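anyone seen this seq b4? input:
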Amino acid sequence: MNFQQLRSVRETVRQGFNLTEVAASLHTSQPGVSRQIRELEEELGIEIFVRAGKRLTGLTPPGVTVLPIVERLLHEASNLKRAGEDFARSGAGALTIAATHSQARYALPAAVRDFRAGKPQVQLHLHQGTPQQVARMLIDGEADIGIATEALAHYEELLALPCYRWTHSVVMPYDHPLAADADQGKPLTLQRLADYPLITYESGYTGRAHIDEAFAKAGLAPEVVLVAMDADVIKTYVELGMGVGIVAAIAYDEERDRHLRAIDARHLFAANMTRLAIKRGSYLRDYVYEFITTFAAPLTRAVVEQALASTPGEDSML
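predicted toks r here
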């Protein structure tokens, strides 16, 4: 048994049993992948995959049992490598962060700057994606840290720790009737907001669920004319006069967005929680803990280690 055999099994499942894709991912040949799988099956005395001719179509019952063990062995091998690097390279290495656009654009820059100032020998890699993609990168071992507002707390494989709460703002051109209402001291209401076409985030992004919940609870069905994954796109189309935007408050900067007026909407939509996630069972190098604390000061090493030692569900109380 060797790690290449285990990687072949794991990657076959990840690539939907397409051996051509598996071979490309592992930088080897398709016959080589097939051979690695067959040799492991012969050694274990079971068939891991269901076959239709030469094609693999799924996992056998023994394969379903074996796969989590394969994942665990490869994960521990990765931990072993990180532990060795921690001592051999003393603070040098790479840190991969997966985040949604809003976090990468508005929440992370200050933490990245401060961390780099203290740890110039650490190479940072920043990947952006949907909350679900961020979670998958963590689970697959492609990222050390994940940061997003939605989805991360829904995966048992991940430890998702609360970082900070934030609210939404409504943005519009300065000559918009809602801006005139604000100047006259009239409070913004959901009913008034629903009178205008809206531009906001796609479902599953940046607190969109709380926006939909608020309108639904009020019995309103606003006209959402455009959805996007990030606030910069939303603000661009608001400037074009296509509608009123609902964005994360952190995404509005008075100087940068001087063509737009912002109205605080925390009284209309529930607050949102941004979370930082890591894969359970992971070995975290010293500088990973340092970055976590740099991004969210309450998440000290002691707090993170205590949460990692907890079982799923217990950490939600921290």
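Residues 92-164+274-317 form a domain with the D-Maltodextrin-Binding Protein; domain 2 fold (CATH 3.40.190.10). The longest helix spans residues 61-88. kinda curious what u guys think
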